[in-house]
Target: PEPxxWA-CTERM sorting domain-containing protein
Amino acid sequence: MYLRMHQTYQPAPASDGSGVYSFALGTDPMSFDWGVDNDSQSNITGLITMTNIGTGSSLSYDPFFTGNDNELMDSSTQNSFRLNWGGIGFDPGVDDTYRVDLTINGLGSDTSRTLSVFAKLGDGAMGAVPEPATWALMILGFGFIGGIQRKTRQKVKLTYA
Model:
């Protein structure tokens, strides 16, 4: 099983190591890719659920419904899907965390397997913290300017009355 989330027509970003992906979404649509390898040839069912963690609103759909899946062989199924966040209260002006779950039932000896992807979405989801190289350039620049001002000699003009 796999589940991957990305901005539509853009490569998937790297996670920050915690499993949370951040997107400066604005009004760009999101997509996710999923796939299942059913080696046991058993009858499987599935559900993809999108949840707004902040509000608790969720929306689900059946990934195996006709037209939602691309069966590659008897044992593999995959597809990409473009998410519509409107049903779970998406507001591009508010940063919020969302979860997408892919749950498959009847896969081999397991009764249920779930994969989850978390994403922080919104206009400001990509924080305004500068890159380390930018910080270094700013510090060096301020130091350079301070050094120049310190070394500049003041000329004192003496006048006698």
In short: The longest strand covers residues 96-105. The chain has one domain: 2-131. Residues 2-131 form a domain with the Immunoglobulin-like fold (CATH 2.60.40). The two ends are 92 Å apart (CA to CA).
